[in-house]
Amino acid sequence: MRDILATIVYSIWYILPSYIANMSPVIFGGGKPIDFNKKFIDGRRILGDHKTIRGFISGVILGTIAGIAQGRALQGILLSLGAMVGDAIGSFIKRRLGIEEGGSVPLLDQECFLVFSILFAYPIESVDLYSIIFLLFLTPLLHKGTNVIAYYLKLKEVSY
Ligand code: CTP
Ligand code: MG
């Protein structure tokens, strides 16, 4: 029981900069898209209008600040950079599947940033399998919760 609790607490502490990075663009995003409105060879946008430079940078900065506050600056940088790269890769895949900006793809929307976060930070802080499984389970639930809150605060147009 104590082990389970320790895993839960450690996992949330471990991933916190990534979660903060992922939430920041909803508040601070907007402006120029990362793909500069460019299209891919399939004629669709590379990433789309919803992946903005400001959103990306705000995510990395706030996630890094969170990491510094935790006394884990390097993890903060890598987790938040991984989150923003993974989030953009998720959008890249969605555009290739022909899904419009903001359209929902279960799991891809919620787990892609998480997986890349963990991959980026892994060389600095390897995380155990139980923590990864717990985070894969927790993240979609949190994602749903924060999106509903952001929707009611009128920060987002859709509740997913
Ligand atoms: N956002 C941003 N810049 C980023 C990432 C996100 O400005 N690099 C902002 C956008 O306003 C976006 C919102 O955060 O609408 C929510 O992000 P997300 O759910 O990841 O994007 P979607 O709207 O679902 O777009 P996509 O279909 O491309 O995933
Ligand atoms: Mg979305």
Give a quick rundown of the structure.
This protein is an all-alpha fold. It has 5 helices and no strands. It has helices spanning 2-28, 53-69, 73-96, 108-121, 129-152.
Topology:
Layout: H1 2-28, H2 53-69, H3 73-96, H4 108-121, H5 129-152
Helix pairs in contact: 1-2, 1-3, 1-4, 1-5, 2-3, 3-4, 4-5
CA gyration radius, whole angstroms: 16 Å
Helix/strand order: HHHHH
Main beta sheet, described?
A: none
Number of strands: 0
> Average pLDDT across residues?
96
Oligomer: single chain
Shape: globular
- The total count of helices amounts to 5
> Between the first and last Cα atoms, what is the distance in angstroms?
33 Å
Describe the structure.
There is one protein chain. The model has no long low-confidence stretch (mean pLDDT 96). The chain has a domain of 111 residues. It starts with a helix and ends in an 8-residue tail after the last helix. The protein is 66% helix and 0% strand. By secondary structure, it is an all-alpha fold. The chain binds cytidine-5'-triphosphate and magnesium ion (MG). Cytidine-5'-triphosphate binds next to helix 1, helix 2 and helix 3.
List descriptors.
160 residues, mainly alpha, 5 helices, binds cytidine-5'-triphosphate, binds magnesium ion
